[in-house]
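Bench notes, bay 3.
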Amino acid sequence: MTRAFFAGAMLAVWALCPAQAQQILLPQDLSPENLDITTLQTEQLPSLRRIEPSRRGLVVQEPVESGARAVLRGLDKISGSVTDLDLAVGAQTLFADRLTITLQDCRYPGSDPASNAYAYLTIEDKLRDAPIFEGWMIAASPALNALDHARYDVWVLRCTTTSSGDGNG
């Protein structure tokens, strides 16, 4: 799924059901009034901030903070086994002896660390040449940008600032 499609999907959800849309992430140099989804590039992602709807349009609420670690959950759909994975930013782990998961970044709202998490992941399958997933996963909306694999599911639970991954934000 491309970044432009991801951004377009978020805007479509916002346009169709603004009452249900709670938040969206945009690069800091884009204003909600002149949003052009073709300008959302990977190099702009480090400067994300949270935007929320209001009666007067979109309002910037507060910046997001970076977490040192992320807690992910992996599911083997055939066996039904669930595994929680604690990863440091920049680290990788092997899930189910087949998927290599690399955590590039993890972010959370600065004012409420337990409310949501946004993790940038790269997931590779030993049986394929190219990565099967690369992009942002959102804890509050795991299906918005999900891993598309026949046997495995992986999603983000939370970001942590602690070394063990047991605390929120």
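Next record in the batch:
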Amino acid sequence: MKTTDVKAYSNGKENGVRLFVCKSYDALSAKAAAIVSGEINKKANFVLGLATGTSPIGLYTELARLNDEGKVDFSRVTTYNLDEYYPIDAENDQSYRYFMNKYLFNKVNINMDDTHLLNGRAPDPEAECRAYDEAIVNAGNIDLQVLGIGCNGHIGFNEPGDKFIMGTHLVELTENTIEANSRLFNSADEVPRHALSMGIGAIMNAKSIVLVANGKNKAKAVKDALEGEITPYCQASILRLHKNVVFVIDEDAASELTEYKPL
């Protein structure tokens, strides 16, 4: 990655979100991996929050490469994923457990017992959600949370609505999200209509947050998150109230921003 492939931007606010705009998806993935691996290497028994979706795949590929080269060690890392479809079996190739095993866990030296996802077949989803929140708190909360962003501004499966839901919860997915995710299934009819999602509370309690986004289809969501009103109708907008957030995005995802200027 060349230094010219990534540029830092600011909106001039002292406590604003830090923004890196990258020339390519590969540069975005390398920059995000450098941030995440750097934080992991600073602390033993690191608690890492993870996201799924297409945006972080390159990040996970880079982390696996760094692990192979001995530049980051996952042996003392504990992970908590943001969400899981409901209902779905962990062995289903569209489950987020399957995704994480495929793109990260099976490629690094992590103890599988230290990887945690919500149970997509939990008989009592409310109890599953309470237990997940308790486990995160008992782990000392998340040190770094990786996020993507939906085209409607969702983070995790926290969908647009009239409030921010703090705790992990059962979500009814919007038609927008179902349509966006249908590309990964044989048809939209196969996409589960519900999911279990970490709430805004656990995300905002993370000590640091790295959000990755690429593509013009994410440009409006990124603009709303960074420059629009802080509102639950764009769940990602609440990230502006956090003290340590970095957006790592490509030029297409940054294309509608007007308030951020190069440093």
